[in-house]
Model the fold of this input.
Amino acid sequence: MSDFASATLNGSQERELFDHLRDVISSKWFLEKQGLNNEVPFFICPFKPEYQIQMTRVINQLSQKLDGDGVSVLETNLFDIALELLEKRNLLSKSIERETDLKKDQLVKAFRNVLDPQDHLIPKIREMADEANFDVLFITGVGEVFPFIRSHNVLNNLQSAIKVQPTVMFFPGSYQHELATGASLDLFGLLTDDKYYRAYNILTYKVPA
Done:
C-alpha cells in the first residue's frame, strides 16, 4: 500500500486509503482485537496535513460505509469537544472580549486547564461513549486543538476510559514506531508530540488472509 504519510494523496491513492481502512476496520480480526497480545487497541492513521480536506471526506465516507457493513462508528472531534467545554465555562466568549488584554501564555494556560485530558476531556469522551452503541471510536480534530491539547496526552488518558472498542486517531503528521528508534508522534511533520509507543500504525496493519 502507498505511504500516505508522505505521498501525494491523489484520487487513486484516496481510494486505496479508503479501501484499506474499510477492509481493516470491518474485519473480525480488527473488531475482536485479535493478535494484539493484550495491548490496548489503539491505532494511528497518519496523513500529510495539507490533505486534511481529502481525509475529512475519507472519514465521512468511511463512517457511512462501515455503518452499512454493520460496524457502528462513534466520532469524537476534539475541536468540537474543546469548544463545548470552553463555552460551558464561558471562557471562550470572555477570551474573545479580552483578546487585546490577554497575553498568549495566559490564554494557553487558561485553555489547558479547562481542556485538561484527565480532568475534563476524557470524562467528556467517556460520557459520549456511555451514551452510544458503537464498535469503533474515531478521534478527529487533532491538529485544530494544538497546542492546547496534545495527542499523546489524549491517548495516555483514554486507555483507562475506552478499553473494549478499538480506537483510531486520525493524525495530521507522521507516526514512527520502530524498535531501533522508538516511537514518536510528529504533528504537522514538524512538531514532535512527545512519545507514545502503544498504538499501531493502521496504514501498515495487515489483516491475515
